Each structure stands twice: as C-alpha cells, then as structure tokens.
Amino acid sequence: MTRVRVFRSADALAGALAHDIARRISETPRLVLGLPTGRTPIPFYQELVRLYSGGRVDFSRTTTFNLDEFVGLDGGDSRSYRAFMQRHLFDHVNIARRRVHFLNGAARDLARECARYERAIRRAGGIDIQILGLGLNGHIGFNEPARALIARTHRTRLTAATRRANAALFGNRTSAVPREALSMGMATILHARRVVLIATGASKARCIDRMVNGPVTPRLPASFLQLHANAEVWVDRAAAARK
Ligand code: GLP
Are 67 and 34 in contact (CB under 8 A)? Predict the structure, then answer.
C-alpha cells in the first residue's frame, strides 16, 4: 500500500517536503537525492532555497541525480532540464558541482551515456530519497505508458501528450519539443530507499486515484510505486479529490 498524505494546499506540501528534506540532510549530510523537473516541484525548490538563505540547510555534501533529460539538448541549452534545475535550485544553494548529476541528452553514444548514469548512481551508494512528479498520463521520469516498461536508464520516445505538457520550455511550441528523452528506468526508481511522489491540482486527481487504488500496470507507470515498501504520495486537496 502506498501511503498518501494530503496537504491543505500546494504551498503547504512544498513547505513540509522542504523541511523534511532539510532535516534528512542535517542528519545525513551525504544524502543522495533523486530530483524531478516540471511545474509541481518549483515551490518545493523555492522553499529549499529559502531554507538555505536562512542558514537552515547545508548542501555542501549532498549528491543529486536528476531523473531525465531531452535527447539532443546539452546542459548549456536553456531549455534543458539541467538549465531548469540551475535556475530553480542549484544556482542558489551551495551544492558542489561535482555532486550534481545529469543525463547528457547530447552525448554521442546515448546507450553508453545511460550505462554511465547507472554506474554513477551505484557508485554514489544508490539513491536515498527519490522525489517524483507525475505526468498527466501517469508517467514518472519519462517512463511513458506502454505495453512494457524498461528497468534501467534508457532512451525513450515521448508521447504527444507529454510533448504538449512540456511545450512551455520551448516557447509554447509543441513541435519544438524533442521527440525523445533519456530517463531513469522503473527499477532505477524503485531501488531508491524512499520514494516521495508529489502531485498538486485537480488535473492530477484521476491519475492519483488510479495509481493508488488501481492495478499495477505499465499502462500507468506510477502504479508500480505500489510495489515499493517505502513509497509515499504527497498531494494537495485538489489532487486528492477522487475523480
Ligand atoms: C515532465 C517530467 C516528469 C514530471 C512531469 C510532470 O514530463 N519528465 O518527470 O513529473 O513533467 O510535470 P508537472 O509537474 O509540470 O505536471
């Protein structure tokens, strides 16, 4: 059973998560975090920056691995997920550059790049806390609904719905969104010691209900979190309202 926590608002959720993570970092400075992009985690990152500015969290020994990246974009591209993370978190806190890990979507050999990422995660001792957003179609990372899921970090084709959802990064032009991405696989995610999926807003309510109460199915990749012994789903009231 996935544990569900309901917060009165998206901001309350972001505040509670930032405090939770800050506390874990103070207990275990070498914490290894898995991080998502998307609109949902932005208030959480803002709150972490606020805690850092107030001297309440020190990221100097923390390691991070981001979930996914678009194929064809290198980290210097302002539309990349790496640039997104720089803007919203890394530029504003004292995280060591060498401890920040990303998939390089512009790598010449993408299969090798995926294998390198898996090795880097292993070498870091695995992910302690993986934070996840939720795609409207039930994807996590870029593990899209399909007949079968892929266990490890891999190259994947994005669905039309996901490309539309990511258009904001590309001047609202869906046609400019890359057709492919690199993503941690389902096993990469499920091997994290703790998983916290966050979702806010009424548009996610139906998906949350299906992932928590429905069958485990590759048609709704987030439903695989039901198999994790230490997975939590944090939602605001709107996302908790069963549809
Ligand atoms: C993208 C990311 C996902 C993220 C999803 C949800 O597709 N690859 O990791 O969870 O967006 O985004 P949002 O939080 O904007 O709804």
Answer: yes
Q: Is residue 20 flagged as an active site residue?
A: no
**Structural domains of the chain, ranges and CATH numbers in brackets:** 3-216+227-236 (3.40.50.1360)
Question: What whole-number distance in Å separates Cα of residue 197 and Cα of residue 185?
Answer: 16
Alpha-carbon gap, residue 93 to 144, rounded angstroms: 32
Taking the C-alpha atoms of residue 25 and residue 59, their distance in angstroms, rounded to an integer, is 7
Asked whether residue 1 carries a pLDDT value surpassing 80, the answer given is no
Q: Which residues line ligand 1 (CB under 6 A)?
A: 36-40, 67-68, 133-135, 141-142, 162, 165-166
Cα dist. 113→34, 120, 241 in Å? 18, 10, 40
Residue 112, helix vs strand vs coil: helix
Q: Is the pTM of this model over 0.90?
A: yes
Using an 8 Å Cβ cutoff, are 177 and 87 in contact?
A: no
Nearest 5°: the CA angle 56, 120, 178 is 90
For residue 50, pLDDT beyond 80: yes
Pick the closest to residue 143 from 131, 158, 163 (CA basis).
158
Catalytic residue among 47, 113, 128, 144: 144
Choose one of 13, 37, 132 to mutate for the ligand 1 pocket test, by most ligand atoms within 8 angstroms of C-beta.
Answer: 37
Residue 32: name the closest of 58, 61, 69, 57 by CA. Answer: 61
